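Weekly modeling sync, notes
Attendees: AB, CL, MP (scribe)

Item 1: holo prediction request
CL wants a bound-state model with zinc ion before deciding which constructs to order. AB pointed out that an apo prediction alone won't tell us much about the pocket. Agreed to run with the ligand included and paste results into these notes for async review.

Input as submitted:
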Amino acid sequence: MNFRSPIKHCRECGTAVVYRLPDDGDTRERAVCPACHTVHYENPLNVVGTVPVWGEQVLLCKRNIEPRKGKWTLPAGFMELGETTAEGAARETDEEAGAQIQMLDLFTVMNVVRVGQVHLYYRATLLSDRFNPGYETQEARLYHEADIPWDELAFRTVRETLLCFFADRRRGRFELHTLDIG
Ligand SMILES: [Zn+2]
């Protein structure tokens, strides 16, 4: 989940692009092709995931890929074209943990402006405590709140989502949280 590198070549004709204000009155610099004049727009990407729960425990995955290889995360990844946010979150949970879940409500929406991403996490109920992690995951296991490896979490949005989850659970009421991550 890194910031994307700048566009280098035109998607239409392959010519090296230049970043400049387009000629149509746009007020942001865009990657403009000097040959065919195509303007390439870059917009935030959605990262979708789940907080999978088994009784008192939450499922975390130890990452087997960069960035943050070896750190723990909730199952999450980039949303694909042709799927809803909930479908993407369920797909990532299956791919990264091989976990069977029942999806619940949207739980956190986090703007990570610095890297041009929006992260969305759904709560989910695990239907089994048997997991079958894919290649992206070294290990998938359940954690009680007291054992969460807070210093070994892969991403700030995972930390914030887990903090919201345990706080809401203590209150006995889950609600949607919207956060801006600096
Ligand atoms: Zn071009």
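Recorded for review: The radius of gyration is 19 Å.
Action items: CL to compare against the apo run; MP to circulate these notes.
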